[in-house]
Amino acid sequence: MMAATQTAYFVIADISGYTRFLSRVELDHAHDIIGDLMTTLVSAMRPPLRLAKFEGDAAFLYAVAEKIDGAVLQDAIESAYFAFRRRLRDIALATTCECEACKHMTALDVKFVCHHGVVVEHVMAGRKELAGTDVIVVHRLLKNDVSERLGRRAYALYSNACAVAMSLDYAAQGLLAHTEKVDIVGEVTCWVSDLHEAWRAETESKRTCVARDDAALLVECDLPAPRGAIWEYLTVPGLRPRFQHTDGVIEAPASGRRGAGTTNHCMHGKEAVIEEVIDWRPVDYVTLTTLLPIAGAVKILMTFCLTDLPNGATHLELRVARAKPKDAAFLAKVIPNAQKKFTEEFESLRALAEQPSWTQPLVPEPELPPARA
Asked: Cβ distance 292 to 305 under 8 Å?
C-alpha cells in the first residue's frame, strides 16, 4: 500500500560560518556552543514547526500546511533568528572562557530556506523520515548563491511555491527576487528576506508593553499548550472566533504583513470593535488599542503577555492600561464588562488548549541538545 501524501511547509535552519568556525577552534567547546544554538533555534520555532531531524550544522523542520498560517510561519523564522542573536550575545557576555571557540562564536550566523510541497513517510533503517521531490528541493536550495549575488549572509529564502502558499506579499515587504537552478526541477523563483535588517529593526523599534503593576485590569490563566499555539489563537483572524466573542475578524496588515500597524475590525453583527496593533513581539506579547462602537468611547491600551510554564504550558495575561484622567470615567464604566468578557474567553481558550489541536507528528522528533548553563 502506498503511503499517504500530505502537503507541508519545509524549513531548514542552517548555521553559517560553521566549517570555518570548527577549523580554528577547540572541538569540545565548539560542539557545546553549536548544540546550545541549535536548541535555541529549534525551540523558538516549535510550534508551529516540528523537528524532523538534525543534519550536522542544520535542523530540518516542517509543518503540515493546513495547520499553519503563513504570517505565523514568517514570524516563527524571524523570532528564531532573534532568539539566536540574543543567545549568542548572552553566551559571549557571560563566558569567562578565553578559548578560541568562545572568542570566535560571534562570527556564526543563520540562514533559513523555506519550501512548500508534498511529502510522504519513508522508513529507513527502522526510522521514519520525510521523503519526496519537495524534500529534495528544499535541501538543494540550501546550496545557493544568495550571499554571493545579493550580499546577504543572514537571510530567509522562500521558494515561490512557499510564498504563494503563505500569501506572502513580497513586493510590499521589499523582499528581493532570486533564482536558483535545481537539477531535478529546473529554475526555482525565490524571495529573500534580509534577517540582519529585521534584527536591526527589532533592536531599534520602540517597545510598548503594559506592565503588570500598572494595569487597571488584569485577567490571567494557565493554559496546557505551548506559547506558539496560544499565540496563533490570539492573533490569527480565522482562529479568534473559536474562543472570542466575535462574528469574525477583518484584518488590514501594514506593509503587507501582520504586525505593528495592523488594523483589525472585530465584527459583532453590523458593528465593529476596531483594534490597532501598537507593538508586536511574537511569541512574547502583543500590545494594541481597542475602540468600542459606543458613544463617547476612547481608545483602550492593552497587552496580551505570554510566558512559559513547566511541561510546555503557558501563562497568559491580559493587562489593560490605566487611563489618562480625562478618560478615567469611561474606562471605569467598561472594566466590569471587560473583565467578564475576557474571563469567559480565556476559559474557552483553555478548553481549546486541552484538546489535541495538532495532528500526530509525521516522524518522531529527536531530543534537543541541552542548553549551556
From this structure: no
Does the pLDDT at position 125 exceed 90? no
Q: Which amino acid is at 170?
A: Y
Does the pTM surpass 0.85? The reply is yes
Among 58, 158, 169, which Cα is nearest to 108's? Answer: 58
pLDDT in tens, 31-52: 777 888 889 999 999 888 999 9
Domain definitions of the chain by residue range: 6-203, 205-353
Give the CATH number of domain 205-353; options: 3.30.530.20, 3.40.640.10, 3.40.50.11290, 3.30.420.40: 3.30.530.20
Q: Which distant-in-sequence residues (6+ apart) come within 8 Å of 210 by Cβ? A: 287, 301, 302, 303, 319, 320, 321
The answer to whether 162 and 9 are in contact (CB under 8 A) is yes
Q: What ranges make up the beta strands (E) of the chain?
A: 6-16, 50-55, 58-64, 109-124, 127-131, 155-159, 176-182, 186-194, 215-223, 248-252, 263-268, 271-281, 285-291, 300-308, 314-321
Report d(CA 346, CA 222) in Å as an integer.
Answer: 9
Q: Which fold has domain 6-203?
A: Alpha-Beta Plaits (3.30.70)
**Cβ contact 50:365 at 8 Å:** yes
pLDDT of 93 above 50: yes
All cell numbers assigned to 182: 535545481
Closest CA to 10 of 168, 140, 154, 117: 117
